[in-house]
Design brief:
binds pyridoxal-5'-phosphate; alpha/beta
Length: 413
């Protein structure tokens, strides 16, 4: 595919109008890191300004009457994007903190001490799960996942017994982008009396998710990647209503109390999803999540997924025609049914190639030891951006521009 063909696809793209809804300061920059930090929606900047000037600046503490249930209202806006019911999603804290709360609650509720995860799960999740299992007197059983295709349900079956209270994995792998079979593995866990807890950070807003098809599946996820909520925007957690009563947050703060303004000396958890809240929510950042979720809902997750697959398919086509012969290997599934929103391309010189590519106006990121992630977020990435990115990559490889960069990692990647 050449640039003209790509431009034709862009002209026919049903989502083409959405790029203008984002701040695009440098039109020559190809931003393929929406899987790490989504771009700023114009409406978000306005809404945050209004929240600061009018709600905080003028109405001061009186604004809390409209702010206090924002974590649940924004949770309700995320619910349809993940196949959860209204009332089952709360926006609060960070993904790591929500994982800690729900994993701890799950072991307490099942009276079991072991957790199963897989070796491709996100490191922060591994740290949290290790700590939670250790506190319960158990351990994490780590199953081997295929580095490209992700965890296999049959391997999960073999790891489960009556000692496992929780199965926790990522829905989409942060490295390979493989989509795990959430519904099948949640059912496998359920059949052994274990709960399951899914990290949706790399799927929410780009891959359709159907938590309703997975009994007893809980979820956490972040909002600053494909949901474009903004840097450090609060994360979400999802718990099916049937589990609310059974689970107690290990951080019983006043925002999770049944009657928070009674200032009761004793903790009594709220009846619904709010029992998983702890302290005061970050209101300005919550506006970013609210607007980001609304933009995603307006575009429609099925349209977003269709465009995402077209963009990653184009990238893989160019991998086959131009990059395989230049030392790259495909680190993501070819099968579109199990490929998430980004494509991992592996190269033994990946670190300095990624640095050189960024300096050539293509923002990607690098994950050790050899993976460059290309995340073409569908709401603002065009087909021509993918073509330009690969053209610039080919140019720099052929001119060996990357060889001037240090091999060692420095700073944020
Ligand atoms: C980005 C990401 C997170 C983020 O965790 P925070 O605690 O919100 O910083 C968690 N899990 C996965 C899989 C991620 O990709």
């Amino acid at each position: 595919m050449n640039r003209d063909n790509a431009a034709e696809l862009d002209a026919a793209d049903p989502l083409r109008g959405f790029r203008d809804r984002f701040v695009v300061d440098d039109p020559g920059l190809v931003y393929l890191d929406g899987n790490s930090l989504g771009r700023l929606p114009k409406a978000t900047a306005e809404a945050m300004r209004a929240t600061i000037d009018d709600e905080w600046g003028r109405r001061l503490v009186g604004s809390w009457s409209s702010w206090v249930d924002l974590p649940e209202r924004v949770g309700d806006a995320i619910a349809p994007l993940i196949g959860a019911a209204a009332g089952d999603v709360l926006v609060a804290d960070q993904t790591s903190v929500n994982l800690y709360k729900l994993a701890t609650a799950a072991l307490d509720a099942t009276g079991r001490a072991d957790i199963v995860t897989d070796d491709s799960n996100f490191p922060s999740d591994r740290y949290v799960l290790d700590a939670v299992a250790a506190r319960a007197g158990g351990r994490v059983r780590v199953i081997a996942a295929d580095p490209v295709h992700g965890p296999d349900p049959d391997v999960l079956v073999a790891a489960l017994d009556g000692g496992v209270g929780l199965v926790s994995m990522s829905h989409v792998s942060f490295k390979s982008g493989a989509i795990a079979d959430l519904a099948t593995m949640a059912r496998i866990a359920d059949a052994t009396g274990a709960l399951s807890l899914w990290d949706l950070s790399h799927s929410v807003g780009v891959v359709p998710i159907d938590l309703a098809a997975a009994p007893s599946a809980m979820a956490v996820g972040c909002t600053y990647k494909y949901l474009n909520g903004g840097p450090g925007a609060p994360a979400f957690l999802a718990v099916p209503a049937a589990l609310h009563e059974r689970l107690r947050s290990p951080i019983p703060g006043w925002f999770g109390h049944d009657d928070m303004f009674a200032f009761d000396p004793d903790y009594r958890p709220a009846a619904g999803i709010r029992r998983f809240a702890a302290g005061t929510p970050p209101i300005v950042s919550l506006r970013g999540v609210e607007l980001g979720a609304a933009l995603t809902a307006e575009a429609g997750i099925e349209s977003i997924r269709a465009k995402s697959l077209a963009l990653t398919e184009l990238l893989i086509e160019r991998f086959d025609s131009d990059l395989a012969a230049r030392g790259f290997r495909l680190g993501s599934p070819r099968n579109p049914a199990i490929r998430g929103g980004h494509v991992a391309l592996r190269h033994e010189d990946g670190y300095r190639i990624a640095q050189a590519l960024i300096d050539h106006g293509v923002v990607v990121d690098f994950r050790a030891p050899d993976t460059i992630r290309f995340g073409p977020a569908p709401l603002y990435t065009r087909h021509v951006d993918v073509v330009d990115a690969v053209d610039r990559l080919v140019d720099l490889l052929d001119s060996r521009a990357h060889e001037q960069y240090p091999r060692a990692r420095t700073g944020v990647t």
